[in-house]
Amino acid sequence: MSRLAVWSIEARPDDDAKPSIPKKAGRSSIELEKYLENWIVDDVSLIGDGLTLVGQQVTIDDGRLDLLAIDSQDRWIVIEVKPGVLESGALHQALYYAASLARLDPQELREKLTPNLSSFGEPQVISQRIETLIDDEGEKREIALMLVGVGIHPGLARMNEFLERFQIPMSIVSFEVFKPDAGPKLLVREVIEESTEPPRPKIKYTVEAIRALAIDAGVIDSFDRFVRIAKEAGLAVQPQRASIRIAPPANRTRYLMYAHPHNEANRAGLWISVGGPQFVEFFPKIDEVEASAIAREGSGAHFAGKELEQRLDEIEDFLTKHFPKTDAETASF
Fold it and tell me: What's this model's pTM, rounded to 2 decimal places?
């Protein structure tokens, strides 16, 4: 079973010149399991980057799927939240719901998700993202798994390693709460990310295909600008099913930003998400406060008209400052 430990770093009260003292924080008695799912609904970034929640307690077959999301790679993410240690049963349930989701008729899927979209943001914008994903699915629905709980049983970790051989996309997220002697309680997260092994050959998405969606949505100039400023910063431009994901050159499976073109109620625009913590993770010289400011909309928001141009101005100013065009390809932080 995975066990975390946390220490606070405290200065010596008697002599500032001496090294600081690590002091172990004890585990808290807070009922983490009771609150975990609602915390995720309030802030989905707790469990991952670039996720858009689209469903909670979704009835599928003879059960209820805890949470359903769409990620920055335009995949459905089946999220199984467990009130306690994650064991093999959590994997079984996630696989069961993924299999059920895979065979759902598109109209049935719409009917299950549409009534509750207001719980996760702007219903029209999220609905359009769902529609675009459904319309572009082809023969197979692309689904990944995420297990969330409080601790990870060693058997589940071994099962995850085995499933990587078959390239079943799954990540595991575990939380614990600690209480230092002074200050607020600390929520600590442990993540086992899905394998970064090259996937089996599949449909090849292209920037031109996503440009076609932008043309249809009437937002091609803004879309082209988003791609251009990312390329000028030396970042990787990754076409997904219906969006463009911007990734760090050092790890093209990760997310820094993404943009999804669409036209909702005559509001031609882009759904844009910027990951502030991810910029700091891969480029540590970027200030956390500044990164947080550029990621102001959290998990993503729809921008149109002047608001869209202003948002692109902000992103371009941020990228130009930290990734000068003259050395964008070789910048090292």
Answer: 0.68
